[in-house]
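R.M. (postdoc): so does anyone remember the format we settled on? I'll just put the structure tokens first.
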């Protein structure tokens, strides 16, 4: 298997080798190359200890000295991780106590899966693969290095990593690995919220077919441990003509969005979590989900807070779950579209349409695509005109109202909002003289 390493990686390896040390490329880039894909991070494993690495390279960052990792800037400006060979001394299911080793094979033996326990020499092109990782990749199998039960007990995050690797590379999880994984699932509650969030995020932002990995969360019962709000949607009947349950509907919507729309993929994943609480029977015996958007937004807020999302991401995700069904009528006049824009606010418009299109792709309905395209054209046309949608855009301010004899207080706010409504209805009115004239009319009509 031919592996092409960046020149900077070859230069780092040569510097270590010329100084009497081993230098092996490890990590995602080697694994991905063996799987016939490009990408992944280039990391270097060496017998040189951190202090020695910092002596050998001019530009370094101590990003994980206690665990033997030094960041080294290559000639291409990229920060590469150079880590001393290690072996585990003790583990508790969340963290490992390690000590340095002089053996590459010992270092590879502590890795999680065989596909990750491979190393490649950038100078001689030798592949070190003591556990058959390349053969497993070619056979389409994901298996642990050594005892599956022991591997998962060392770090329960490996359960979630198994889902990600199996989904991303289209691998079948080996029977013995799957059995041990299922037994380890109840221990996922011991993981920190940040690690869980980051691992799910890697599924969403690195794989077009994210549903393969996400389905493994459902099949193993992992959602019950890390996000019971999502677990409640699995196998939940929706009454859709295609027979999609709420969970499968969400999976299809996630896959309909590109990986770089990670935050929006979170919205698609969570869009149906209000279904269970909102579901009621209609008069024909079918299901209806009136109000699921608001219920879902509350549940989404609880979940993303628990997973410790940033405030910016939390606000965006929760609001889009709440807004997911709010589109203006197809026959809305321009003023109606502007009122809708004022309610939704422009920063959310594009993502809301992207979400609606993804939901349509997950469950196509007749003419639904044309309807969405036509509504988008209307919304986009209004956005291009940069309409005034907030008080900040009015041609008059509170100072103008005070000058007209109106005291600060609720009445002033009421008048400004009335003027804004008139401007949204007719943008040409947003001129100071006309607005002051309208203001006088409002005062006289009291």
């Amino acid at each position: 298997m031919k592996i092409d390493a960046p020149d900077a990686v070859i230069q780092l390896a040569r510097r270590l080798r010329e100084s009497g040390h081993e230098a092996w490329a490890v990590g995602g880039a080697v694994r991905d190359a063996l799987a016939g894909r490009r990408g992944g991070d280039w990391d270097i494993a060496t017998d040189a200890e951190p202090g020695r690495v910092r002596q050998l390279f001019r530009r370094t960052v101590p990003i994980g000295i206690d665990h033997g990792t030094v960041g080294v800037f290559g000639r291409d400006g990229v920060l590469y991780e150079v880590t001393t060979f290690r072996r585990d001394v003790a583990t508790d299911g969340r963290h490992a106590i390690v000590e340095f080793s002089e053996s590459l094979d010992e270092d590879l033996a502590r890795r999680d899966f065989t596909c990750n326990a491979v190393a490649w020499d950038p100078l001689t092109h030798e592949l070190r693969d003591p556990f058959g990782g390349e053969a497993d990749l070619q056979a389409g199998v994901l298996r642990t290095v050594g005892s599956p039960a022991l591997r998962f007990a060392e770090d329960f995050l490996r359960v979630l990593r198994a889902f990600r690797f199996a989904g991303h590379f289209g691998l079948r999880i080996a029977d013995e690995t799957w059995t041990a994984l299922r037994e380890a699932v109840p221990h996922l509650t011991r993981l920190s919220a940040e690690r869980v969030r980051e691992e799910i995020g890697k599924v969403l932002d690195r794989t077009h077919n994210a549903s393969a990995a996400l389905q493994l969360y459902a099949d193993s019962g992992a959602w019950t441990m890390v996000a019971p709000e999502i677990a409640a949607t699995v196998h939940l009947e929706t009454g859709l003509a295609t027979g999609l349950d709420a969970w499968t509907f969400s999976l299809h919507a996630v896959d309909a969005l590109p990986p770089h729309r990670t935050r929006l993929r979170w919205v698609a994943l969570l869009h149906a979590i209000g279904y269970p609480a909102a579901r009621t029977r209609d008069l024909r015996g079918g299901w209806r989900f009136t109000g699921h958007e608001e219920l879902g937004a509350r549940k989404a807020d609880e979940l993303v807070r628990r997973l410790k999302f940033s405030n910016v991401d939390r606000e965006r995700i929760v609001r889009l779950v709440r807004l997911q069904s709010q589109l203006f009528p197809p026959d809305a006049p321009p003023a109606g579209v502007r009122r809708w824009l004022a309610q939704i606010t422009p920063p959310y418009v594009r993502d809301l349409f992207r979400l609606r299109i993804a939901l349509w792709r997950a469950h196509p309905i007749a003419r639904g695509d044309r309807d969405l395209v036509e509504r988008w054209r209307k919304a986009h046309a209004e956005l291009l005109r940069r309409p005034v949608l907030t008080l900040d855009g009015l041609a008059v301010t509170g100072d103008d109202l005070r000058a007209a004899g109106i005291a600060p207080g609720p009445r002033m706010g009421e008048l400004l909002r009335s003027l804004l409504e008139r401007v949204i209805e007719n943008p040409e009115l947003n001129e100071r003289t006309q607005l002051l004239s309208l203001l006088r009319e409002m005062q006289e009509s009291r």
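R.M.: ...and that's the designed sequence above, right after the tokens. Also worth knowing: The two ends are 84 Å apart (CA to CA). The mean pLDDT is 93.
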